[in-house]
Design goal:
Layout lengths: L2 E3 L5 E3 L1 H9 L4 H5 L5 E4 L4 E4 L6 E4 L6 E4 L2 E11 L11 E4 L2 E11 L3 E6 L3 H7 L3 E11 L5 E5 L7 E11 L7 E3 L9
Parallel strand pairs: 1-4, 2-5, 3-6, 4-7, 5-7, 6-8, 7-9, 8-10, 9-11, 10-12, 11-13, 12-14
Length: 190
């Protein structure tokens, strides 16, 4: 199946959730039930994009903003991602999870966690599926101040990650972490 996301607007906003969560205290249940803004699974030929000079804005995601999973032949470009910077965290920009043959380019990301992240399944689920994220080009990305990690591999990467290239990517981090690799092992088992 080939999918191209065409929107008759320039902004996708998760307004109801973000205004609700900001109006009162965040409970563990509210945090655990946060939805992703856009998630696509098992797609061949996925394109999510704005136009040069007129980027598509993805705004106020309660959790990961854009998540293609188990997909291939992906092109994500000309986006502005603006996710909450206060109170909730883990508002990743783009998470490629068990994907292959992807290009992610021309993005400006202002969020509270990873800008662009490679994943491939959590623990036994990822190992059983054994679908790596592979053959990925990430270029011309700017992650602005406030995020925790501009570019990440993991932590959910039990299916493997290989052949990922980052070029012309910039991160301005308030916590001095610009690129990182993570695993799920406890510190005493690393």
């Amino acid at each position: 199946m080939h999918v191209s996301v065409f929107l008759l607007c320039h902004t996708v906003v998760c307004q109801q959730w973000s205004s609700h969560i900001r109006s009162g205290p965040t409970t563990a249940r509210q945090i655990a039930s946060r939805p992703k803004l856009l998630e696509f699974q098992f797609v061949t030929g996925l394109a999510v994009h704005g136009e040069p000079g007129a980027p598509l804005t993805l705004k106020d995601s309660p959790f990961w903003t854009l998540t293609p999973s188990y997909s291939q032949n992906i092109h994500v470009h000309d986006l502005v991602i603006l996710a909450p910077m206060d109170r909730i965290g883990n508002t990743d920009g783009v998470n490629l999870d068990s994907c292959r043959n992807a290009v992610v380019e021309n993005l400006r990301i202002n969020n509270s966690d990873d800008g662009v992240c490679m994943k491939s399944g959590l623990d036994g689920f990822g190992m059983n599926l054994a679908i790596p994220t592979e053959n990925v080009l990430v270029r011309n990305i700017t992650c602005t101040a406030g995020g925790r990690c501009g570019f990440a591999i993991g932590s959910e990467m039990s299916g493997g990650v290989r052949n990922v290239t980052w070029v012309y990517c910039f991160a301005v981090s308030s916590v001095n972490m610009h690129a990182c690799m993570r695993d799920n092992l406890p510190a005493d088992q690393r």
